[in-house]
UniProtKB/TrEMBL annotation, chains A, B:
This is Helix-turn-helix transcriptional regulator. PANTHER family: ARSENICAL RESISTANCE OPERON REPRESSOR ARSR-RELATED. The lineage of its organism: Bacteria, Pseudomonadati, Pseudomonadota, Alphaproteobacteria, Acetobacterales. InterPro entries: ArsR-like_HTH, HTH_ArsR_DNA-bd_dom, Metal_resp_trans_reg, WH-like_DNA-bd_sf, WH_DNA-bd_sf. It comes from Teichococcus aerophilus. Keywords: DNA-binding, Transcription, Transcription regulation. SUPFAM superfamilies: Winged helix' DNA-binding domain. It holds the Pfam family HTH_20. The keyword Transcription regulation applies. NCBIfam families: HTH_metalloreg.
Length: 118, 118
DNA sequence: CTTTCATCTCAACACATCTTGAGACATTAA
DNA sequence: TTAATGTCTCAAGATGTGTTGAGATGAAAG
């Protein structure tokens, strides 16, 4: 991810409705959700929702596919991890004061670590 | 870091000038840089620079202290790591597809890992 | 083909953001 | 005090963003 993509992604995520959409789609899994279901969960009108979904798609953070009458949106996991990696690489140059606590916080969350302790 | 702080931080970073200022200040170290030196590095007028620095300070991403005639700005490392941790926790709930590659990308960068292999 | 359903597109408006230039404020030196 | 330096504040204008409502499009059912 280059700087321009990162700026787009950051801008897309810096809006309450869009951040919540991404959160919803990440937890929804790779199959994603139909636009209607997202709108219901967000309490958004169809045109408002369409505006934000288009914005997120242009920023590369979600992807869409038609399925019958509805359109399913799903999180672009690679773009999200790319953004986080960009922030860490960009911030961490010689300064682990940023990355070390961030990774430590991740270890304390429910996610499996890169090397699961199985 | 809660959602509102994260939105502020994401919005602050989603602007080219401000993202570059943060990058500059992170690499400048804890002592930071005087506003004038930042402006020179960015090629920005004093009022434009002041606008962006104030924006970043309100978002909690930088801090300032007066030093003689000049004002030194420095990166708020804790806020930056807090933002990254927020993104990972928020994105990673049950979905290591985001966090695992991000942490792996970090390991490939010049930064010391949380458990240095010394 | 017509209807229905799901979603998108468009124009309009309000509001926020970024940039600029002029000037104010605070700090130091003469 | 006066002058010089470094930075901030303010108002104005251009541009960008988010919301709404009305209507268009596309897909499936009758």
């Amino acid at each position: 991810m280059d700087e321009m993509q990162a700026l787009d992604a950051l801008g897309a995520l810096s809006q309450e409705t869009r951040l919540r959409i991404v959160r919803l789609l990440v937890t929804a899994g790779p199959d994603g959700m139909a636009a209607g279901a997202i709108g219901e969960a967000m309490g958004a009108t169809s045109s408002r929702l369409s505006f934000h979904l288009t914005h997120l798609e242009h920023a590369g953070l979600v992807q869409s596919r038609r399925e019958g009458r509805s359109i399913r949106y799903s999180a672009a996991y690679d773009a999200l991890s790319g953004l986080i990696a960009f922030l860490m690489r960009d911030c961490c140059q010689g300064h682990p004061a940023v990355c070390t606590p961030a990774v430590a916080a991740l270890a304390a969350c429910a996610c499996p670590s890169p090397e699961p302790p199985k």
